[in-house]
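Figure 6 in text form: structure in, sequence out.
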């Protein structure tokens, strides 16, 4: 009876240990690590992805901003699966020893996974550099161009605005046309044909 109870306890303990081994580790995706290089560049390291991880490093140095990106499958490394946080901290420690976080780092190698397959290595796929205030310069240029367009439109509107002419009442126009027709009738009745225009003008003056 005692042997049976002891065997039962051993089985229960074994199942508990198996459950702990099968328990998944916390993911490292979305974590951010801040560090400084040997030349005091202020850098940020962010990770994303699941099986294939993506690592992005952004640094600020003397008015410039530089960045680089790496990809790899560190999950094939058993040490990474056991504790991914230590893996990324070791990469940050190696980058702290460099004067530039993105130069001479085509492949990130650490002792933690040195025996892992080559697919576990984080390899650089892109890099770049730009002035730190480049974004602010672009915004100021956009504001200047939009304000210049607005001023140009207002000046064009002023130039193309037609002059305001005095309004003539319809009654005045109709009266003037009636006087002209009557003067022309009288000129045709009483003047030679070659003088119709002159006579109609004189008659129109006298008739007001």
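Output sequence:
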């Amino acid at each position: 009876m005692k042997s049976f109870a002891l065997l039962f306890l051993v089985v229960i303990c074994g199942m508990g240990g198996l459950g702990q081994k099968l328990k998944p580790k916390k993911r490292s995706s979305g974590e951010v690590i801040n560090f400084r290089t040997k030349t005091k560049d202020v850098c940020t390291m962010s990770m994303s992805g699941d099986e294939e991880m993506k690592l992005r490093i952004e640094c600020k140095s003397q008015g410039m901003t530089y960045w680089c990106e790496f990809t790899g499958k560190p999950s094939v490394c058993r040490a990474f699966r056991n504790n991914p946080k230590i893996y990324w901290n070791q990469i940050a420690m190696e980058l702290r020893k460099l004067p530039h976080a993105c130069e001479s780092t085509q492949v990130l190698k650490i002792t933690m996974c040195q025996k892992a397959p080559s697919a576990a290595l984080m390899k650089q796929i892109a890099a770049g550099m730009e002035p730190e205030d480049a974004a602010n310069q672009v915004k100021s240029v956009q504001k200047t161009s939009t304000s210049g367009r607005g001023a140009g439109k207002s000046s064009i509107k002023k130039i193309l605005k037609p002059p305001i002419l005095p309004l003539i009442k319809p009654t005045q126009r109709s009266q003037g046309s009636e006087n002209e027709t009557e003067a022309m009738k009288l000129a045709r009745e009483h003047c030679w044909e070659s003088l119709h225009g002159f006579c109609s003008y004189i008659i129109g003056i006298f008739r007001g």
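Caption detail: The longest strand covers residues 122-131.
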